[in-house]
Amino acid sequence: MDWQALSLSLQLAAATSLLLLPPAAWLARLLAWSAWRGRAVLEAAILLPLVLPPTVLGYYLLLGLGGASPLGQAYHALTGRQLVFSFDGLLVASLIVNLPFAVQPMQRSFAAIPRELREAAWVSGLSRWQTFLRIELPLAWPGMAAALALSFAHTLGEFGVVLMVGGSLPGETRTIAIAIYDQAQAFNDAAAAGMSALLLALSFVAVIVVSRLGRSVLRR
Amino acid sequence: MTLSARLEQTAPIPLAAEIACASGELLALVGPSGSGKSTILRCLAGLHRPAAGHVRCADETWFDAARGIDVPPQQRRVGFVFQHYALFPHLSALANVVQAIGHLPPAQRAARARHWLARCNLDGFDDRRPAELSGGQQQRVALARALAREPQVLLLDEPFSAVDQVTRRKLLRQLIDLRRSLAIPIVLVTHDLEEASLLADRMTVLHHGRTLQTATPEAMLAQPASALVARLTDQPNLFEGKVLQHLPAADTTRIEWLGRPLLASHQPAFAVGETVSWLVPEAAVILVREHQSERENTVTAVVSERLAWRGHATVSARVDGRREATLNFAIGAAVAQRRGIVPGASVPLQLQKSAIRLLPGDVAIAGQAGTSGKGHSP
């Protein structure tokens, strides 16, 4: 078992799912409740990581985050380091890749809140912020928890994009999925099997959590 | 504290409405689905912004398109009961009501919410969630929440449409009791004319977003402004005829209907030869005896339908076998039985001269949107 890789993966997954939650919630509300021109384009753009081959996505991220890109240069100017082949670069890539996993479940649970409920809150005197905290959040939490679980599990298992953007630097970018690949390539079956079983179990738990939360949304 | 509004827009639903409602008054907005009733309510509450017009409550302007004023719903002090109540499903009845009491210090809110629940006959239901309440109880929580805001205006959007008939009667009675103590304008949206007649001081009839007429329920039934209003208020005995002659001395206007002369009270606003609509209220269609069939305004009709309900019979009878000449009237079910009023029976009916009212012909009413009663001129 590559404990360093496991710890790195857990850190990446936790950071990704938590950092992604607020902007994804904002996007989910926007897509659930407002109708405007270009909404379909935004929706499609968010779903893109689901259908693109990870290598294609990874390639564009490599370009977008690389030393020649504005983002890469800005990062270099600030920190003196490169964004690609670093944990931070991996995190940025991970945030983008996981957007659909975070937005989709929340969009569904926000869309399930009738507009009348928000209007009832407004005419009761609740500000938009109070309405969000007291009415929307308690009603949409199953979607938020599902978003957390899904993006956490998906980050643990992400392989192609990680390899393209981060490579396999121990302690910096070698996640557990990459470690499994390395061990399998080296015919180290015992290590690969152990880590694979762990990922399988974690993913299974995440899927169970998501489906239970999904049902509790429907019950309401 | 008077509420007045003029609302205009062309899309998504056309509106050209003008309403006014005084303190303590209950104004019913009636009209078919899609006539803009609910949109008007939403404009009053600040949930929808019309293209033009204004909304004023007492000396406050809540909306004025020309002056760029649009006070958000949070600051309008409106009590709103939604059609499906819109209770917060994750909160108890008490917490639902507490949400509307932001204007009081936190320590006083629960007590005040209990007060309003009690006012709406909901003692002991504090901790129940909406899903654990019956439809009638949910409606009362919604009403308590609306009143707890201590609103300047109470808006009710079809508040009785989602409950069964028996519960509806109970809730109606409670609202009639409750509104006596409310010195604010109350606007009720309903498509149920019986409900409007029971509750409203005045009613406004809407069609395609236009306010056609505002009057007391009695006046609306006795003197609709047009054939359209008569139809929208479900007046059954509405026909077409032609003015034959005015006889002011005899207080009579003679009209022709299906080749027969009919006498109405003198209504000089209509020219001789003009095609008019005319109506006679159900109560003014009198079932007379065979030997009285020579009386004035008496026609013979053949019963086509008899519907009995709780001792009353509603009878439809056709003149000359024509569907468009169907007279409707109500009699006691026992009388109907005794007189042999069954489909196919021939009956003499007298149309009371004084109750026959002439209205502009249907063609003329298409572009008409007159309002009567209180209200501002555009």
Describe the protein.
The complex is a heterodimer of chains A (220) and B (378). Helix content of chain A is 80%, strand content 0%. Chain A is an all-alpha fold and 220 residues long. Chain B folds into two domains: 3-231, P-loop containing nucleotide triphosphate hydrolases (Rossmann fold); 282-351, RNA polymerase II/Efflux pump adaptor protein, barrel-sandwich hybrid domain (OB fold (Dihydrolipoamide Acetyltransferase, E2P)). In chain B, 23% of the residues lie in helices and 33% in strands. Chain B is built from ten helices and 21 strands. In chain B, strand 17 and strand 18 (312-319) form a beta hairpin. The interface between A and B is medium-sized, with 17 and 23 residues.
Give a quick precis of the structure:
With about 220 residues, chain A is mainly α.
Keywords:
heterodimer; A: 220 residues; mainly alpha; MetI-like fold; 11 helices; globular; B: 378 residues; alpha+beta; Rossmann fold; OB fold (Dihydrolipoamide Acetyltransferase, E2P); 6-stranded mixed beta sheet; 5-stranded antiparallel beta sheet; 21 strands; 23% helix; disordered C terminus
Q: What name does the CATH topology of chain A carry?
A: MetI-like fold
Order of H and E elements of chain A: HHHHHHHHHHH
Q: Assembly type of the shown chains?
A: heterodimer
User: What is the CATH topology of the largest domain in chain B?
Assistant: Rossmann fold
Indicate the structural class of chain B.
alpha+beta
Q: What is the average per-residue confidence, as pLDDT of chain A, rounded to a whole number?
A: 90
Termini gap of chain B: 21 Å
The most extensive contact between chains is: A-B, 17 and 23 residues
Shape of chain B: globular
Number of domains of chain A: 1
CATH architecture assignment name of chain A: Orthogonal Bundle
Strand content of chain A: under 5%
Number of helices of chain A: 11
Helical fraction of chain B equals 10-25%
User: Which ranges of chain B are low-confidence, i.e. pLDDT below 50, for 5 or more consecutive residues?
Assistant: 364-378
Number of domains of chain B: 2
Which architecture name of the largest domain in chain B does CATH use? Answer: 3-Layer(aba) Sandwich
In the sheet with the most strands of chain B, the strands line up as 7-8-9-3-10-11
* Rg of chain B (C-alpha, Å): 24 Å
In the predicted model, the low-confidence regions of chain A spanning at least 5 consecutive residues are none
Helix content of chain A: over 70%
